[in-house]
Amino acid sequence: MPKQKTQKPKQPNQPVRRDCSVCTLKGRPRVFTEWHDPNIVIVGQAPGKTEAKEGRPFLGAAGKFGRKFLKAFETATITNSARCYPPEDRKPTAKEMKCCKPALLNVLAGAQEIYLLGRPAFDNLFPKKSFTQYVGSSFREDGKLWHILYHPAAALHNPRLRNRIIEDYKLAGESTEITQAMPIEVPVIRPDDQILKPDAKVIIADTEWDSKGNILVGAMDEEGRFYQEVL
Ligand code: SF4
Known about the structure:
- This protein has seven helices and eight strands; from the N terminus they run E-H-H-E-H-E-H-H-E-E-H-H-E-E-E.
- The protein is an alpha/beta fold.
- It folds into two domains: 20-174, Uracil-DNA glycosylase-like domain (Uracil-DNA Glycosylase, subunit E, 3-Layer(aba) Sandwich), CATH 3.40.470; 191-230, no CATH class.
- Helix 3 packs across helix 4 (119-125).
- It starts with 36 loop residues before the first strand and ends with a strand.
- Bound molecules: iron/sulfur cluster (SF4).
């Protein structure tokens, strides 16, 4: 009789870990998720030069355009398909996004409404669907409302798309089903982590694991000071 493999049952609510050791972006500057309302999440592709320097997503020219025209930026949690800055400001590859996907899925697990900005972010989560067919539209799947939009960088690189993108951003904002922002939940940082002052009010936090099992914590306090630590 063939020997049967015994599989450890998966524990519910256990965060899935990604494996950075097999990712070509290993060791590159990392930008953590910017946590605000966990019910609404904006997903980009990967940090650019400015984001890598500042340690927050969507801060460069494209990010400023997005923050100006897409209302969800006022309340949403903001993250990327790949957390690390690709060399020469290139887009992340499908393989890099796949390596990072467990971290993204952890952020999306509790979200009700998700904005996917750009083809890489869309293809990473919906490989069987066509970005061209869905861009500018919203649909429901897995109990979540998905808004499929151009990345704001497209408005800067292709001026002919600018007005279309502004219009899509406006319409996506109007079709939102969540009218009341939920209180900000900070999932992991505690004063006894000794990363922040005990009385600091954390406005951004994220926890991840590297391939050795170290816990990495990123946080920003209310005065805008950014912290990254390995626990
Ligand atoms: S955090 Fe994501 S992008 Fe960075 S090395 Fe790990 S898997 Fe790759």
